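Below: protein 1.
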Amino acid sequence: MVLPLRWRAAQGQKDFFVSEANAEAVTFLDGWSTWPVPAALLIGPAGSGKSHLAAIFARRSNARLWDDADRVSSEEALFHAWNAAMEERRPLLMTARSMPGDWNLSLADLKSRLAATPRVQIRSPDDALLEAVFLKQWRDRGVEAPADVTRYVLSRIERSFEGLARTVDALDKAALSQQRPLSIPLAREVFIDLDFEG
């Protein structure tokens, strides 16, 4: 029996790859001192690097972070955090997968504050970012993905951060359970199981 290993994602600035998909978000956060209010929303799909980029920003600016603001359990707590950012002039960066208009909020005061909050989006990954994220997810696990495997996998997977994460997880589980290295034959078998074209 192979027990799943715990791995920790590298969250340093040097570990964050900037591409066309996220360059606008990086520039926006770099210019935080010019925001009209000391709060902002960083919006993007799951696995897009929102939390990673937010952590880099927080270390640099002493910001407060509120991850997954679109799934907030206490609207009042988020409302008070927004007000505290105004009073203390300490930035509040909220991450979310969707725009505030899609959050189904009931607190009118929070809705109005979020409407006044500047926002930026991380777009769907371009090829360069998809490759960088693929390689990083393997490095976080202590594995250097071979170039031929990288090309093979990236030419066949769903072009999304979530699709990439699912694929890496499936490959990693298969490699660990079968005690095999990451290879094209292993990827081909996993893709058959995932119902991908191999």
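Below: protein 2.
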Amino acid sequence: MEYSKLGSSGIQVSRCCLGTMTWGNQNSEAEAHEQMDYAITQGINFFDTAEVYAVPPSAATYGKTETMIGTWFAKHKNRDKIILMSKIAGPGPDWIREGKNKIDRTNILAAIDGSLKRLQTDYIDVYQLHWPNREFPHFGKNSAGTIDFTKADTKAEEENLLEVLQTLGELQKAGKIRHAGLSNDSAWGIMKYLQMSEKYSLPRMVSIQNEFNLMNRYDDPHVAEVCVREDVAYLPWSPLAGGQLSGKYLNGARPAGSRWAVDHRVPHRDTEMANEAVRDYVDVAKKHGIDVCQMAIKFCDVQSFATSTIIGATTMDQLKTDIAAFDLKLSQDVLDDIKEVYYRNPVPFNGATDPKRNTQNSQMMRVAASR
């Protein structure tokens, strides 16, 4: 396993980050512990979770993933060996703090204490904002024409960002967090936080995790440029596009126990163009004799702006395959064939092709805080 510097934090993290969102729904506590046990034997020192997990999010599964990680820490007494990230939920879910869960001082203070208790730890290495309070270009709203930014109350939003940074500063001084990071945010969001951090001597955002994969490359080049030039770690999540790049959902298939069999928030992904792209990427992998899931994960890993790629698995076989992807070498021929597919079909899932569907799906995804 190779390691990279986590932005301006200076922390060394494994190129593979263990995602955890299925633990507590598709995975039991014993299975979660088995995954963590195996991950550390492979050199992984970087775990990502969130208060809203497990997914699909619900009141019944809220906080379950953090709780399972906490029991693992209690059992192994190895908290200092892991770089742990968690996230505070943004607006949407009505079962979190009675629906009054805008990211602000009151909610940050409540959320961090809840996460620390469930995780059975005194601190979180990187505390992230799961999604912004403002309308933002993610969760099916990446495409041109889906958001009218002229309607934004920028002054009020900037005041909120300052309050957030000030509160994160309080947590840092109290020793509850080491660093802060973003998730599902934009180039503007990153830069505005960085500007305020410098102006007011407040904690600096050291990382951002956004969806990035063969099917979704919206962050390259704009967010990617900001991250490289400003020393903010870029952490791709969903390298398999919610499992779609495995090819297992083609022709309407929903294998028992799979993500799409239990999580139906995928209308912007399950399109003709998307399925065509999946078939093409599967064909590229077959042509070169490599596993398509490993090819997709390694594609994220080889991006010059990527620091660590967040993987997730529901079975040990999947986990072993995913982690082994980081040892894969993608030849120039493979990369050229990937490029050809991309040129033919650069935006394979695009909710903006149907504005009504896009709006409905974005609201659903925001409430569910899918990752």
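Strands lie at 3-5, 12-14, 16-19, 46-48, 83-88, 124-129, 177-183, 205-211, 233-237, 309-311.
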